[in-house]
Specification:
This protein has strands at 12-17, 22-27, 33-39, 46-50, 52-57, 60-66, 72-78, 83-92, 95-107. With 108 residues, the chain is mainly β. A 9-stranded antiparallel beta sheet has the order 4-3-2-1-9-8-7-6-5, with no helix packed on it. This is Phenolic acid decarboxylase.
Length: 108
């Protein structure tokens, strides 16, 4: 039995984070990959990443990936309210650093 496609599969969203960061997130048709593109201060940065996805409630998804830079990103995407809780970590001075943020999704 095949799992149903995630609700974000084949869609593109503008993702605006509470710290001012913004991204254009384009999800593959099968929901297994993401191409994110930085906007504003992050313009010109992008990556195509493999996703790990679990639906934790109707239209609410836990989505995680690791970027080539070593940054890890975990989202709880609520497609009912178009909101996201995001936790990202990276290697900083003295060890791993993490930040928790909220954001909004706008279909693009």
């Amino acid at each position: 039995m095949t799992a149903p496609l995630p609700g974000f599969a084949g869609r593109t969203y503008l993702f605006e984070v509470d710290n001012g960061a913004a991204f254009r997130n384009a999800y593959s048709a099968d929901g297994t990959r993401l191409r994110w593109e930085g906007l504003g201060e992050s313009a010109g940065q992008w990556e195509d990443v493999k996703l790990h996805v679990a639906e934790v409630a109707p239209r609410i998804y836990f989505v995680s990936w690791t970027e080539t830079s070593g940054i890890t990103v975990s989202h709880v995407m609520d497609l009912n309210t178009l909101t996201v809780k995001v936790f990202w970590t990276w290697e900083g001075e003295g060890g791993r650093v993490g930040e928790l943020h909220t954001g909004r999704l706008t279909p693009a």
